[in-house]
Design a protein that fits this description.
The complex is a heterodimer. Chain A has two helices and seven strands; from the N terminus they run E-E-H-E-E-E-E-H-E. Helix content of chain A is about 15%, strand content about 30%. Chain B has one domain: Cytochrome-c3 Hydrogenase, chain B (Orthogonal Bundle). Chain B has 13 helices and eight strands. In chain B, strands 1-2-3 form a three-stranded antiparallel β-sheet, with no helix packed on it. Chain B has a three-stranded antiparallel β-sheet with strand order 6-7-8. In chain B, helix 3 runs antiparallel to helix 4, helix 3 runs antiparallel to helix 10 and helix 5 runs antiparallel to helix 10. The chains are: A alpha/beta, B alpha+beta.
Chain lengths: ~130, ~350
Amino acid sequence: MKDYTLVITDDNTGVIQPDRIISQTRSLKDEGFRFVTMSSTDLGESICVIYHLDKDLELVNLKVEAPKGKKIPSISSVYSSAFLVENEIKEHFGVDFDGLPLDFQGMLYLDEEVQRTPFCKIGINRV
Amino acid sequence: MARTVLPFGPQHPVLPEPMHLTLAVEDEIVREAIPKLGYVHRGLEKLAEIRDHTQMIQIVERVCGICSTLHALCYCQGIEALMNVEVPPRARFLRVVWAEMHRIHSHLLWLGLFADAFGFESLFMQFWRIRERIMDLQEATSGNRVIVSVNLVGGVKRDIEPDTERWILDTLKIVEKEVLQLKSTIMDDFTVKRRTVGKGVLTQERAYELGAAGPTLRASGIAQDMRQTGYAAYGELDFTPVIETDGDCYARTVCRFNEIFQAIDLIRQAFAKLPQGELAVKPKGLPNGEVVSRVEQPRGEVLYYLKGTGKKFLDRLRIRTPTFANIPPLLEMLPGCDLADVPVLILTIDPCISCTER
């Protein structure tokens, strides 16, 4: 039996630097991991983005922290399906992803009239 | 012919919910598809910050009516992991019963909508007629036809008495017989095959790489199903994922059709092994920490990320639904198809836009 719930701890999930996310996800893809999704949380001054990958139903998580409004590399060049959730996080949390192949300019779900990131505890102006 | 851009949706006869696709076509052959969402975006995840974590069960059940009990199950499972709650065995088996009833009604709903998408209205009515039997079972056991609100943190809030169990098993016999009668129509009919065989092919490699979920993934030959992890009581039941290998619209249809019989079998197994005992335990404390919880909805794997900080409100709730995962595969299937096949292709991922946008 595999884990259907995974409690995230410092032992099973490391925080990596934003500039290493592409190489890390690429090496996991080479090992046969598939992209599940990404989650994000507001840490106050920064946003934590969690990458969820899976192989044979075993989940692996990677965490990246970035100051609000700063860019982090898009992993769409590694997993092309990531573009959708990256657009969502950009829209809701203001994280700008560098190298997005299809950028909805913050209007995947929201309209232009929404001026601040709605999912941050203290919103920032939308890009 | 020069490239023409056509809007598809958000209001279209084949779409039960609003979604927009910008289609670039040449001679009625689709060359590119770009999605636009946002017509039913409610921001439900944000409510977790201002609603008690137990109240959130009722909210996640409304992310999508069709998968209501499975949203609640996934959410409760995550909170239970954070609070170290051991769910009683009877509750785990009852969760399987309601989850599989949901799967049957969802697949019958989809088969009807799919038949309607290519103009086979009598088949649509036949599938929905059978579905009503399952809706009656859901209403009798949970009090509601669609929003089956039975899950609690720590177990379930309703029991199924032996009389009701017998009635469910008798009804399932009828459902099984009636669905079987439609097998030759859905699988062998010339018109159905003409509209589905070889259309919207998703190869095994691309399905995996693009992160497809549920029948969209399994119809491409990948035997991945979250029920293999053994959540609820699936670990104590005999279960092997239903797969097809061709990856086309026909394979996805056959996969869902066969999953109905598997769901009936799982309910029978669950009742055969249903232990006596309490329905729920009272959880102590408040959720603290981060957890990822996953279950298999009728449309595929759903993932919940929950973050608690020891308060009654969660710090973050994130939901990744199967339709969200199946949009990139859909965008892969559309280029190269006839414009007339677009509605059929879209329906074969069983799109739920309320789920996708939350």
